Amino acid sequence: MRPLPSPARNPYWRFLVAGFRGQSAYPLATLAGLVANATFGVLKGAIMGAAVESSGGELAGYTAGSMAAFVWLGQGMLGSVNLWGGSDLQARIKDGDVAVDFLRPVSVQASHVLTDVGKGLFGLLPRGLPSVLIGVAVGGMVLPSEPSAYALGLISLLLGIAVSHAAMYAVATSGFWLVETRGISVFYMAFSGLFAGLFTPIYLFPDWLLTLALLTPFPSMMQLPIDVLSGQVTGAAAWQHLGVQALWLTIVLVVGHLTTRAGRRRLEVQGG
Amino acid sequence: MIASRARSQASHRASFRMDLVGALLVGAIEFAEIWVLYSATDQIGGFTLAQIMLVFGLSDLAFSLADLVAGHCDNLPVYVRAGTLDVFFLRPQPVLAQLVTSDLSLRRIGRCLVGATSLTVGLVLNDIDWTAGTVGLLALALVSGFVIFTAQFVTAAGLQFFLVNGAEMTNAFVYGGRYAATQPTSVWPRSLLVVFGAVFPVAFAAFLPVSTLLGVPGVAGLPDWLGWCAPLAALWAVGVAALCWRWGLRHYRGAGG
Q1: ipTM of this complex
Q2: Short name of one Pfam family for this protein (chain B) (predicted)?
């Protein structure tokens, strides 16, 4: 066997790779996810396309082509961002396994978030790329012409994936204080989809709702990366998007760090 | 048996209340998406917000009732992996009946409230000519919708015997079907018309009966009395479900041991 290159010795790099590889073990599940994803995409594309058409070819800055891009980029990101309100950490806190995590000489937060980001990155291959291909082939999706959209879009996409998993981690740490976190998960899921732009672009919202959405980290998980990736937002505005995402990533990471530290003192594992 | 499940759930009051509120919230947000979309434009596919509220209400109510009765068919892959299903074969009751009664989730009642509210508001907002025919059509649509969605759950369960790890595939027509049922079929490309109008006939659960009721054309080129055919669509869905379930059951070889 070849000697491992140096980053491979870094435990955090290995969490990322482990998460990535873990997902590749279930090809049928991945295919199934793609079928469901594509079906929803066709349905969403039909209704959103009709909405653009009925408002005279332009709706909140979207044309038929850019609306299709919104739909299919969003579908492609679904396997990579976590909007569903579930996390391994929740289960590990509940059954006490998290005590073992604390004994390891690595950061609990970093190992969980990086494993999840690794899973998310893997999701781009079997679910992200095919979704975009379907969108271009049958959905009437328009790809951006300038190369900067792809470069900035990729950064924005990575930031979006990171924000979603880091935020989910922070939410899951509530388990240190609460016995049952299912209520919080449901609450999170209800708002994350709406505010992240899973169903309609958030720019269709009435002003008060849009303001409310922009005060949460959710748009940074999907809507902003889609804006940049699709070339809907370019230049200085695109950089501003990246700045907002970086800010939210910092916030959710700091919150997660503080709650992990406080929760560790609070943790009582039963049994002996 | 069903009564015992209901009692056991109602006994954890705090958790039950929270689940109920959660279900209401999820339903309300789903309605909010429709509200945002139809408020941003005047109409989509010939339907206004008030009109689509009828479609959303009818289909969401029918789906929620079906989910209440048969939603845990989704757990079949879990039962197969854990070997729980083998126990079902040992008891002198039909396997499907045991699966359906294995977990009655009363918290799903919360979802029914959202659909029922939307339907009621829709009936008030729209100018409806109340005759015996109108009431009959609505009742027919609700019952047919319930049967169609229940049949989708059973179809999915039958196919899951083959797809244990790929169970998400059936979400395409179970949950995709629920989403499809809230949309005007008039905006669909031909492929969607075939899938959700004929094979998994969720278009008959709400949209086609409502378009018959309101006199708004549903699918170009098809007669506007099509909504009355909902029971036929339900019959077809039940037939498909029965075939898939039997086929899946015969394929099942047990978890070993």
Answers
A1: 0.87
A2: ABC2_membrane_6
